[in-house]
Structures are given as C-alpha cells and as structure tokens.
Specification:
With 301 residues, the chain is of the alpha/beta class. Helices cover 50% and strands 8% of the residues. The protein contains 13 helices and five strands. The chain has a five-stranded parallel beta sheet with strand order 2-1-3-4-5, with helices on both faces.
C-alpha cells in the first residue's frame, strides 16, 4: 500500500500550496490514527523487551533508508534522556552510519552483510532487536531480523503493510497500516510519522518499565548543560519536596545523580542513597515505597 498511487492525491501538483499543506496535515493525522489498533501489541513488546534486557541486554536498531534513520534517531536519544549506557545500544543501518546523511545505493539489498552484522555485534539471548521497514519486506532488515532470531534475540518488527515477512517473522509484530502516501512511495511522510511515534512509544515504554522514569520525571537524565542542571534541581525539589537550594546542594553531593540527590535531600547520606538504589536495581519508586513502608530514618553517615 505504501507504494500505491492514491486517487485522493492524483491532482496534487495542480493544487494550491494551501490545499496541498492541508492534505499533508490530513495524512499525518491518518498516520497517527493507524497506530491505535497496534497499541496492545506495542505494550506486549515493551513488557517483553524490558524483561529480556534486564541488567545487561542491549537494544539493537535495524533499518534502511528513512526507517533506519528514524531508528537511529530514537536510539541516539536514549543516553541523554534516560542515561541508557551507550554500550547497550547498537545501530545496524544499511550502508553504515554514512547512510544517515547520504543515500547508499543498493544498501537495503545487502542481505549477507545484514546477517553478518548480527554476528559482528555478538547479538544473542539478552538482546532486543527492533527492525523497522515501512514495506515490511526490506531485504537487509528482514535478513538481520531473521538472523537475530536464530541467535536467540527477542525481535520486534515494525511495518506499515500487513501480511509481509517482517510482520510474520518477528516475535512481536507491530503493524500500522498507513496506506497510500501523498507522494507514492515516499515513506518519509505518513509511514515515517507512524514509525517515529511507535519507536518513541517502545523506547520510552521500556525505560519506564526499567525504572528510568519516576512520576513523569526523567530521573536518570544526564545533566550536561545549564538548562538541564536547572531541570534537575526542579525534579529533585518536586520529588523530595525541598527547596531549590537543598536540591542543588544534594545534586552536587551526588555528582548530578538525580535519584541519589532525591534521597540525599530527604536526609540520607550519599553512600546510603547509593546503597538503597542498588538494592532496588536503581528503581527510585521502589526505594521510596520501601522507605514509606518501613519508616526508615535518615542516617548520620
């Protein structure tokens, strides 16, 4: 369907700019609506992925062309947003990372290279492979997904066309039937929008499941500039119900570890804050729930 010419847009080149833009907006809204039937499948994939990743599993993004670029963009934002370790993210872009900015002819047909990449990165049972292809049949992406599955990885396939190989072969298939594009075959439009949203949902959902979000706050955020430093102060202040000055001092003591700073602001030492978080695999909510249940008093260490 993504390659089909739509009757709706047959006279597109005769329309005014205003009418064309309105049609584009209509298409974007339709792309978002196409995701709703897949919400349960997305949730299932998120739960399975979080369980599989555990303490050492990796997220492996696979794609070609527009799909690959969107996948890389999603993965690249996990470290600054959630402090997801860079070594736990793998990018397998057809044609290599140079293909992010220039077209690499024939890259998406490199079946052998895609399969070999899974072995080069030692993809295995702890890993989650997210394969994205609007068509659902991109040769390199399909090859990587199948090889990853043979290696024991959990596979998630995202496509915009039903009854396609990626939908059939993935452990968790996510289908959003976005239909014909405004410009036939230009999957950077409706299909790309749907892919971006689905990728956002999957990665954010996984991070929430892994305790890297608390109450809507990015409690694992990397504090890398002044804007984020002030955001960190607000986060600590809001969660610990303390003043900005107390939060700022706690962040300094915690070397900008927001979760530790919350506990320090509540009266605990840095050492005990670190210990409590380690006991709960870094899950701040579990720590705070435990403190409320046991009424654990601040230490003097």
């Amino acid at each position: 369907m993504t390659e089909a010419v739509s009757d709706r847009y047959a006279e597109l080149d005769n329309w005014s700019a205003a009418d064309a833009i309105e049609a584009m907006h209509e298409g974007q809204m339709a792309a978002l609506a196409a995701i709703r039937p897949a919400l349960e499948d997305i949730a299932s994939a998120v739960e399975a992925a979080a369980e599989r990743l555990g303490e050492k599993g990796r997220l492996v993004y696979v794609g070609a062309g527009t799909s690959g670029r969107l996948a890389v963009q999603d993965g690249a934002e996990l470290t600054p947003t959630f402090n997801w370790p860079t070594e736990r993210t793998v990018f397998c872009m057809a044609g290599g990372l140079d293909a992010l900015v220039t077209s690499v002819e024939g890259a998406e047909d490199s079946v052998d290279n895609a399969a070999q990449e899974m072995h080069q990165h030692n993809v295995g049972a702890n890993d989650v492979v997210i394969a994205v292809a609007a068509s659902g049949r991109t040769p390199s992406t399909l090859s990587a997904l199948r090889e990853a599955k043979r290696c024991g990885a959990l596979t998630i396939g995202i496509a915009m066309n039903a009854a396609t190989p990626i939908i059939k072969d993935a452990d968790h298939a996510i289908l959003a039937e976005t239909g014909s594009e405004l410009v036939a075959g230009s999957t950077r439009m409706k299909a790309g929008t749907a892919q971006k949203v689905i990728l956002n949902m999957i990665s954010t959902g996984i991070m929430v499941q892994l305790g890297r979000v608390y109450g809507g706050y990015m409690v694992d955020m990397v504090v890398s500039n002044n804007k984020l430093a002030e955001r960190a102060v607000r986060i600590v202040s809001d969660i610990a119900n303390c003043s900005a000055n107390v939060a700022r001092k706690a962040l300094t003591t915690a070397d900008n570890n927001i979760k530790q700073a919350v506990l320090i602001s509540m009266g605990h030492s840095q050492a005990v804050a670190a210990e409590m978080l380690a006991e709960k695999s870094g899950n701040l909510r579990q720590v705070l729930t435990s403190l409320n249940a046991t009424d654990r008093r601040p230490d003097n260490g």
